[in-house]
Amino acid sequence: MEISAQFVRFVTETAEDAVKFDGDEVELAHRAGTGDVTAVKELSSAYRAIAVLTALRLRPLWLPAPDAGQEAMLVLDRLVKDGSTTIAVDLPLAIQTTFSGLRPPDAP
Q1: Is 103 among the domain residues?
Q2: Residue 39's CB: how many other CB atoms inside 10 A?
Q3: pLDDT over 90 for what percent of the chain?
Q4: What end-to-end distance do the CA atoms of the chain give, in Å?
Q5: Residue 31 included in any domain
Q6: Using 50, 70 and 90 to split pLDDT, how confident is the model at 28?
């Protein structure tokens, strides 16, 4: 399976965003939990690389890499908006739980 240049570019951009992040994660998490859109955006940018790389590592073989990355973004979005102060710890299990609930397209 070939990974598209667009997906590779997305993964590269997420890594660059993570390296640039210099915020207070706990303070941003509290703000995100109260609906602060700026805090949600900052935290999401900081953790997108971890989410995508975790998704690529944990994805079921039948799930295309871009789809796994998209599912991971949804999981990350939920954690950020819930105000998690332990995103890096919560993310792998949350992604694995999501993947375990998915079924291949041809499954009954």
Answers
A1: no
A2: 22
A3: 71
A4: 24
A5: yes
A6: very high
Whole-angstrom distance, CA of residue 79 vs CA of residue 65:
21
Expressed as residue numbers, the domain containing 85 is 5-98
pLDDT in tens, 83-101: 999 999 999 999 999 999 9
Q: How many domains does the chain have?
A: 1
Instruction: Answer whether 81's CB lies under 8 Å from 33's CB.
Output: yes
CB 32 within 8 A of CB 81: yes
3-state SS record for the chain: CCCCHHHHHHHHHHHHHHHHCCCCHHHHHHHHHCCCHHHHHHHHHHHHHHHHHHHHHHCCCCCCHHHHHHHHHHHHHHHHHCCCCCHHHHHHHHHHHHHHCCCCCCCC
